[in-house]
């Protein structure tokens, strides 16, 4: 979608001097949200070049792609961008630096700092001190295997594992079917256990020294919640809400782990959110890689044997949870933890739904219901909102967590005219799935009955037959009233498909702005043959087709009420090349909003696409290179600043680049905004350890901001040695604290 700057400023509020969030009602206002639509125009006419203004708090760095904000002519762009060197480091503007706070393998309580740190939350307990809560998402098999012995200090039988997995092929190994005395079972369990220790949640206490550096203080509250907490130590996670009734079943249609509402561990912990009352929420995202996703009509799980121990084509581990007989229906939730309570190992609030949670936006205002927003990070995933039955008295009262035990979960229905409604996911909601014709991939996964799981509807006749057979969501699930509601929440994604919720473009982060509006990062609008695809009436490129590069959207509830059943939405920023109307970034992921209302954004490109050579924009057969493969043009994972007021409003400025093959994620500001905490996840994910400072020269068919093509020569390190930056040292995921050298505010 391309937008003239004139129209964009109307979107911001009739002028460049108006803060973005002033364009919609303030909290506690009864005014409705109404604003002119953004005008779609031919590509190449988006934001006019606006040289860097003096009021930015930093001088943007130069990335590999020319941007309109640099204010260069096309001749100057070709000269300046003809050559580019990729650096295996966290690259920041002049006057900024970073300190490593913690890295994979560091001691945490009686365990260790996990792998692939993601969401960060600093709950400050006083001046310059607090608890840093960190998510650990998944294992990057190549660098993890290469580095485990050196970093952790003990060997693992990787050779035997890889031989067994190669022999098993795509089928994988059903570890729990092997005899307990089988040497292979013991070796695979050992590796799976260490991998599951490296995922989950960590709490570390930190303090800022006089020189501005944040350091660990190793308090008694420091602890790990791993993928196996409770298995051997009795430190189970808890559950609230209707789905806990399903967990308590002693018999059912599917697999039951016999633990009742006790839950072993948490994993695939991606983004999250922090409450005003000082607890942290951790989102279980791609749980389907480690345990079965599908469930039976009564909400019970498919057997662990349905997700065997294996590796996929991207060298990611699969079925780690199945090695220990974990029940799949207990994963895919939001986990609440109080970092200050050393005895708290997490609670899964099932009213928030089970799906591939990426983040959570928390809206807590006195005298109003509590509202939680979260997206399902899959192609065709939905945007959800939970609204509590009770109301908030004091937003800082820890008793507010009890409000999550009663309410309703809704899924968003977007309309092409910029409006939308919320659909309740409850038994009486009509079955009304969208037609396949509106979806980019012409496929919709729906609950399969009576068998359980789901089927892929690829014909309109299948949709019509489904609607004839099932009238309301309750017809798709079994049990009493509470059990049906619990089963619907467990099967939230497929229930939302059946109810007609809008299939979106991988909603990742959801952040509440100061005025109560919601910012959403939609990472990618492309198609998946396994998961689904977005609604082309809402998420499309200039050609009306699927669009890879993503968007940032703003959503405002009608009447600015958390419990409103309708809303309005607008696109704030569009990814893609500037010559095609984009802002020079691709695949927006996590967001942070500073106290001035500006948006800070990090991107997440598929690791195999980082700096992938693009010597020509056509392949050997003369066909255009796909949007997915063109992502090599964008270089490393990046950090962007989008002002929402002043002459630069709505433009994206490049603040930073991450190390090789990493994802920069989890941005979180300290209360005084002097520090931006950031996770550097999976450096060297594809090539592993950079050996002898290896480097490769690659060619890229770049474009100026006005569309003239030129060839860029780019030098790319092969693998990573970050954060040590020493030759042949292992790459390690780590948390950093970004600050100005003079320790002044970043804003």
UniProtKB/TrEMBL annotation:
Record InterPro entries: PhoX, TAT_signal
The protein's name: Phosphatase
PANTHER family hit by this protein: DUF839 DOMAIN-CONTAINING PROTEIN (PTHR35399:SF2), SLR8030 PROTEIN (PTHR35399)
């Amino acid at each position: 979608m391309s937008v003239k700057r004139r129209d964009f400023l109307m979107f911001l509020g009739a002028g460049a001097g108006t803060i973005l969030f002033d364009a919609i009602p303030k909290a506690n206002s009864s005014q409705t949200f109404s604003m002119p639509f953004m005008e779609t125009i031919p590509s190449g006419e988006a934001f006019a070049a606006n040289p860097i203004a003096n009021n930015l708090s930093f001088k943007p760095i130069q990335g590999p792609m020319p941007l309109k904000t640099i204010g260069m002519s096309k001749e100057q762009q070709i000269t300046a961008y003809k050559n580019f060197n990729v650096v295996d480091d966290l690259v920041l503007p002049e006057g900024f630096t970073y300190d490593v706070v913690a890295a994979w393998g560091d001691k945490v309580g009686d365990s260790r700092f996990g792998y692939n740190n993601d969401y960060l939350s600093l709950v400050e307990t006083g001046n310059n001190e607090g608890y840093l809560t960190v998510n650990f998402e998944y294992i990057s098999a190549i660098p993890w295997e290469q580095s485990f012995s050196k970093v952790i200090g003990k060997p693992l039988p990787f050779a035997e594992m890889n031989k067994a997995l190669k022999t098993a092929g795509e089928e994988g190994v059903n570890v729990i079917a092997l005899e307990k005395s089988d040497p292979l079972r013991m070796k695979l369990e050992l590796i799976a256990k260490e991998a599951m220790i490296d995922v989950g949640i960590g709490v570390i206490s930190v303090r800022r020294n006089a020189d501005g550096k944040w350091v660990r203080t190793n308090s008694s509250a420091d602890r790990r919640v791993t993928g196996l907490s409770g298995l051997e130590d009795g430190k189970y996670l808890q559950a609230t809400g209707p789905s806990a009734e399903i967990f308590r079943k002693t018999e059912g249609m599917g697999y039951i782990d016999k633990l009742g509402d006790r839950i072993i561990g948490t994993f695939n912990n991606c983004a999250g959110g922090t409450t005003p009352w000082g607890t942290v929420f951790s989102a279980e995202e791609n749980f389907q890689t480690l345990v079965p996703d599908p469930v039976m009509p009564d909400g019970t799980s498919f057997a662990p044997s349905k997700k065997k121990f294996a590796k996929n084509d991207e060298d990611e581990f699969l079925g780690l949870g199945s090695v220990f007989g974990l029940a799949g229906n207990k994963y895919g939730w939001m986990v609440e933890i109080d970092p200050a309570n050393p005895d708290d190992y997490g609670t899964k609030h099932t009213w928030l739904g089970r799906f591939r949670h990426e983040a959570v936006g928390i809206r807590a205002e006195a005298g109003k219901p509590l509202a939680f927003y979260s997206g399902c990070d899959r192609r065709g995933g939905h945007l959800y909102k939970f609204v509590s039955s009770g109301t908030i008295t004091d937003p800082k009262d820890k008793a507010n967590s009890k409000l999550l035990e009663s309410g309703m979960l809704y899924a968003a229905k977007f309309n092409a005219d910029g409006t939308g409604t919320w659909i309740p996911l409850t038994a009486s909601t009509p079955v009304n799935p969208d037609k396949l014709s509106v979806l980019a991939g012409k496929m919709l996964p729906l609950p399969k009955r009576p068998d359980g799981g789901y089927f892929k509807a690829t014909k309109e006749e299948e949709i019509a037959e489904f609607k004839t057979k099932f009238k309301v969501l309750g017809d798709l699930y079994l049990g009493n009233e509470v059990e049906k509601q619990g089963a619907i929440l467990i099967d939230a994604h497929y229930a939302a498909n059946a109810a007609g919720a809008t299939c979106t473009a991988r909603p990742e982060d959801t952040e509440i702005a100061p005025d109560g509006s919601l910012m959403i990062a939609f990472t990618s609008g492309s198609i998946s043959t396994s998961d689904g695809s977005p609604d082309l009436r809402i998420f499309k490129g200039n050609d009306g087709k699927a669009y890879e590069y993503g968007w940032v959207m703003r959503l405002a509830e009608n009447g600015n009420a958390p419990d409103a059943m309708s809303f309005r939405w607008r696109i704030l920023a569009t990814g893609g090349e500037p010559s095609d109307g984009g802002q020079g970034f691709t695949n927006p992921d996590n967001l942070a909003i500073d106290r001035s209302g500006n948006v800070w954004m990090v991107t997440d490109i598929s690791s195999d696409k980082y700096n992938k050579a693009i010597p020509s924009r056509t392949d050997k057969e003369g066909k255009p290179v796909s949007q997915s493969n063109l992502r090599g043009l964008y270089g490393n994972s990046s950090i962007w600043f989008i002002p929402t007021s002043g002459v630069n409003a709505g433009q994206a400025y490049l603040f930073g680049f991450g190390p090789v093959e990493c994802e920069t994620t989890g941005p979180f500001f300290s209360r005084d905004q002097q520090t931006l905490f950031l996770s550097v996840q999976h450096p060297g994910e594809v090539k592993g350890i950079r050996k002898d400072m290896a480097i490769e020269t690659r060619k890229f068919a770049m474009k100026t901001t006005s569309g003239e093509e030129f060839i860029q020569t780019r030098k790319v390190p092969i693998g990573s040695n970050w954060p040590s930056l020493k030759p042949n040292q292992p790459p390690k995921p780590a948390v950093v604290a970004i600050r100005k050298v003079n320790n002044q505010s970043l804003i």
